[in-house]
Structure formats: structure tokens, C-alpha cells
Write a structure and sequence with these properties.
This protein is an all-alpha fold and about 110 residues long. It has helices at about 5-15, 25-30, 40-55, 60-65, 70-95. This is Lipoprotein.
């Protein structure tokens, strides 16, 4: 690969993984006045959010760069997978803890 194509590939890899709010941050942004907030299902989801954040592994681009182009691809795939997991958990949290319609960033996610 030439340097230009490597730079383009790296740029695309950096852009591809979507951003998703951390589940604990998402829970913190929900209204505690909502009728669903005190339900057992919501309490279970809030605990799941804390457990998820505590167990989430950090994936570093620098580790992928050491392994070359394949390593960057692996790092990108790992980050994308984590973002999908966070988004799915945020969606489940919203279903159990909020009476409001889904926010724009959670619409279109498969249940």
C-alpha cells in the first residue's frame, strides 16, 4: 500500500465506528421523576449499566497500529462492536426507565 492509500484507510477506520453514550451516562440523563424510574425492571437495567461500564474493555488504536493494517482493522471492529453493544443497552434502559419516545440517536436500532 502506498502512503496515501494507508492514510485514507486509516482515516476511514477512524470514522467508521459510531459513538454511543456510556450506559451509566445515559442513565444519569434520564428523569428520576418518570413513573418507570422506580420499577424493578428499571432498577435491574440501572445495575446492568453499572456492570457493563465496569466490565468494558478499552480498545486502543495504538495497539492496533503496532500490528499494522490488520491490527487497525481489528481495533476498528472491536470499537464498532462495543458501540453497538452500548447503543443496544441504552435502548433497553430507555424502554425500561423512560416513558418518553426514543431519542434520535436510539431510533433505528434493532431490538
Amino acid at each position: 500500500m502506498t502512503r496515501i492509500s494507508q492514510a485514507i484507510a486509516f482515516s476511514l477506520i477512524c470514522i467508521l465506528p459510531g459513538c454511543a453514550t456510556s450506559p451509566t451516562d445515559y442513565v444519569a440523563g434520564l428523569s428520576q421523576q418518570d413513573p418507570k424510574w422506580q420499577t424493578p425492571e428499571c432498577e435491574k437495567m440501572r445495575k446492568a449499566a453499572l456492570d457493563y461500564d465496569a466490565g468494558e474493555q478499552r480498545i486502543y488504536w495504538s495497539a492496533g497500529a503496532v500490528l499494522g493494517p490488520y491490527g487497525l482493522g481489528l481495533a476498528a471492529a472491536g470499537k464498532e462492536h462495543q458501540a453497538k453493544e452500548r447503543k443496544q443497552l441504552d435502548r433497553e434502559i430507555h424502554l425500561q426507565c423512560s416513558s418518553q419516545p426514543f431519542p434520535k440517536e436510539l431510533q433505528g436500532t434493532n431490538p
